[in-house]
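hey m, so remember when u said the tokens were messed up on ur end? i reran from scratch. heres the input so u can diff it against urs
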Amino acid sequence: MNNALLVIDMQEILVGKSHAKLFKYDTDVLFRNVNQKISEYPPQHVYYIRKVMKKNLLNRLSPIQAFDGTPEADLAEALEVISEKNYIKYVGDAFANPSLTEDLRTSGITHVDIVGVDGCGCVPLTAEGAIRNGFSARILSDAVQTMSPKRESKQKARVSELGVVYSEA
């Protein structure tokens, strides 16, 4: 199998039990669908990506904070975690972390499927990063949610032109 599953930003602050009120996802459906996708991959092909903030003055003043090592930045409790492949990113595109790209290549991965949040931000940005780094990419729409359907539609059109595939299965 040369496919990997990238699980994007399924963190306590975004989708956990005590998530920030700003984030309004249907977490019951999201966790059911994401956990189902996770169960379809061998553990060594499941990669968890967390977006964290750099500890600087501006971020320390932010009303919503997710610094590495804090409970808010942890993977959500309801998420099935079957591998220790856990990467952090400071920007939307998970491929901005060269360790992720290196690990995928070393493992012989040529294609990534992407699930998680948000469908108008980090999910399509990561798919774009995958294409830019020589991987094929598919966004599994039934395991992705967004807070901005209009922006998601624009991103979908944009990254589809780059070769990203959207699929319900």
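this time it looks ok to me. The two ends are 17 Å apart (CA to CA). if urs says something different then somethings off w ur setup not the seq
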